[in-house]
Amino acid sequence: MTTTTVYDEMIEARRPPDLRSGVAGWLRKNLFNGPVNSVITIITAGLMAWALWPLLQWAVLQADWIGQTREDCSGEGACWVFISARFETIVYGFYPEAARWRVDIIFAMLAALIAWLAIPRLPAKRWVGLFALVGFPVVAYFLLVGGHFGLMYVPTREWGGLMLTLTIATVGIVGSLPLGVILALGRRSKMPLVKSVCVVFIEFWRGVPLITVLFMASVMLPLFVPTEVDFDKLLRALVGIMFFWSAYMAEVVRGGLQAIDKGQNEAGQALGLSYWQRMGLIILPQALKLVIPGIVNTFIALFKDTSLVLIIGLFDLLAIVRAGLTDPNWLGFATEGYVFAALVFWVFCFSMSRYSQYIERKLHTGHRR
Amino acid sequence: MTTPAASASNGPMIEIQRLNKWYGDFHVLRDIDLTVARGERIVICGPSGSGKSTLIRCVNHLEEHQQGEIVVNGIAMTQDVKRIEQIRRHVGMVFQHFNLFPHLSVLENCCLSQVWVQKKPRAEAEATAMEYLERVQIANQAYKYPGQLSGGQQQRVAIARALCMRPDVMLFDEPTSALDPEMIKEVLDVMVELAHEGMTMLCVTHEMGFAKTVADRVIFMDQGQIIEEAPPESFFNNPRSERTQLFLSQILGH
Question: CA-CA distance, B200 to B198, in Å (whole number)?
């Protein structure tokens, strides 16, 4: 037996469900879901506007953007002419103008390599990575230092600004990670000699302030080595920075190594894999992935601390901006200078942070249940 | 699945003589003598802490012993890393907690050691891997990651991974102890099949049904010693020592 239902009138259409996606949906769900929340949202928005409006006026609306000299500053808001007039110096430091194209090439290569390695779709990662680690430093050295192939020699004391900051940060980052991994593995080694060398190295470099390291590198080291051996000051600072941060990196990586179940190593052993194969293929890929936040944290700290080289007389981005403040033609523009320097540092550090979050999501293989 | 590869040696597969091991002051293995013939299936049982896992982990040197001799497939165990790796290449092992590599897919788990230890071309390694995944009936999951599989599936992958190295002997360290009851059978089925195909097997397990079905010999260990070893029939029906009787009554009694 079947029953049949017959409707002789239209059923009224129901309301569509609340908008859940898009800007309007997000606003409704998070900011205006109920009278109390709506009031709070409006009050907070008012407070923010009250606090941020003057900043916006100063930095954008009333700011002076175009000009060459101090006379172009109206004095009502920020005068970004200060930055634009000195922009070349901020980027290249005292690098000779005739040779700045060499820095541009290195900037372009660095950007291209980072982009190539960072964008997953692009092929031949292994070869590009190999070039970035082996070929690029050689090219960068010969182009930036010069003195060969008819290129003008540019001593490192003429380097400065953003190019110096990026040089120090890149060398520091690229050098400290592998060194830190080796130190972390060494600290967990069963061989007493290897282990104690690594422990002493880590504890020494981690125990001294970076400023001390830089002073030692620039002032003390020349006292101990014969005068005819002349290490470049920048080189000494680079080595100091690399060692200093590799000690931090080692402890971050060791945290990751300790989090890996020992069954992973045993499974690798049982399959006949050698120590380096087990580390390189099984343990490190998992351990490094676990500590990406810690690694990037160290990278960001390293990037910001490059500005400490100013105490040994190297003019990084911040130091160049500061130097500009003492220019008699441009007295009184400290705020613009520091805000700009802060913004540049923030852009680089924030990019690293975002990229690390993206990489973490991408490497997630669903085994964390 | 594979017939044990013909080896340079025609002697026993594993020969253990007067093996002693200590953890600090704790004497975990006492004067163990054990000879495993080619194609022989041995089940080792005993209460927890009796040293049964430690014993089979000594066979591929996951544990170091202090006294005694271990000869695997004609190769005497020493401290030499190269020699240890040579032995491990011919000894497959399956762990209680599977120990699959979570950052690699099932297929890559099976290919890793073929490519890096046996230096096989990738295509050949993948073909071998698929062949064994097929045999443990999990080939359709080859591109998934271990974290996406059930415990039983993971353990079958672990067995396939070990078999991909075409080992002469397989060690099983409580392979079903970490599994939910409904998954134990699928793993045991694979192990029974493997036994019927002539693989030399050394299994630490509490699955007495499995022992009755496939074991040539059952070994009972307690406090680091081999208390009793006998074919399953006499082991289960007429255990000689009191401790064995007590143990059997405890695990079969309910």
Answer: 6
